């Protein structure tokens, strides 16, 4: 079995386990909102580095109409990914919908499993986000992910999932 590991030029050696994420990923996905209503979205995720011991992640999503064209911004997220030598990782996110969270998890080559450790919501947050788990993986050269979300009104359930291609 051959494992496809990429180490971008200039990457801090502490980030080697996350090197495969670096770059721009784009595509479409599906989801269910906090009321259980389905939606489709377009997304762009950029993972970059500056030589520090963290990756910077930036995500933008847009709702898609029935014609497949963007109709409105869905959300934006900024994240700092910090791996440790024991293959654990901590991710600190800030979301445009009014919350920030710390996710912790495990890196398994080209698979990353994360669960929220702490969530803080602003008083203006429109959704009572309370917990999350995420799965990221590299499949056939694409970035695939799934996010399950809980709110104060419901337990963890599927929220967003997508397959994004490197651009």
Count of separate structural domains? 1
Distance between the termini: 26 Å
Residues in helices, as a percent range: under 10%
Low-confidence stretches: none
- Morphology call: globular
The largest β sheet comes out as: 10 strands, antiparallel, barrel
The CATH topology assignment is Lipocalin
Number of strands: 10
Oligomer: single chain
The CATH class is identified as Mainly Beta
Beta-strand residue fraction: over 45%
Can you say what the CATH homologous superfamily is? Calycin beta-barrel core domain
The SS-based structural class is mainly beta
Neighbour order of strands in the largest sheet: 1-2-3-4-5-6-7-8-9-10
Order of helices and strands: EEEEEEEEEE
Rg, Å, rounded: 16 Å
The number of helical runs is 0
Average predicted confidence as pLDDT? 94
Proper CATH architecture: Beta Barrel
Keywords: Heme, Iron, Isomerase, Metal-binding
Cofactor: heme b
Motif (GXWXGXG): 23-29
EC number: 5.99.-.-
What does the secondary structure layout of this molecule look like, with pairings?
Layout: E1 23-32, E2 38-48, E3 55-64, E4 70-83, E5 88-95, E6 99-108, E7 111-121, E8 129-139, E9 142-151, E10 157-166
Antiparallel strand pairs: 1-2, 1-10, 2-3, 3-4, 4-5, 5-6, 6-7, 7-8, 8-9, 9-10
């Amino acid at each position: 079995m051959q494992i496809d590991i990429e180490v971008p030029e200039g990457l801090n050696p502490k980030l080697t386990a996350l090197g495969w994420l670096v770059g721009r990923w784009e595509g479409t996905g599906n989801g269910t909102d906090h009321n259980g209503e389905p939606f489709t979205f377009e997304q762009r995720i950029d993972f970059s580095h500056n030589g520090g011991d963290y990756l910077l992640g930036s995500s933008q999503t847009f709702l898609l109409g029935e014609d497949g064209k963007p109709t409105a911004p869905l959300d934006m997220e900024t994240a700092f990914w910090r791996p440790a030598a024991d293959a654990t990782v901590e991710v600190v996110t800030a979301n445009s919908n009014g919350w920030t969270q710390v996710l912790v998890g495990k890196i398994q080559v080209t698979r990353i499993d994360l669960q929220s450790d702490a969530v803080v919501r602003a008083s203006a947050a429109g959704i009572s986000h309370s917990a999350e788990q995420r799965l990221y993986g590299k499949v056939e050269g694409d970035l695939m992910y799934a996010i399950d979300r809980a709110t104060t009104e419901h337990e963890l359930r599927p929220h967003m999932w997508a397959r994004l291609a490197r651009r």
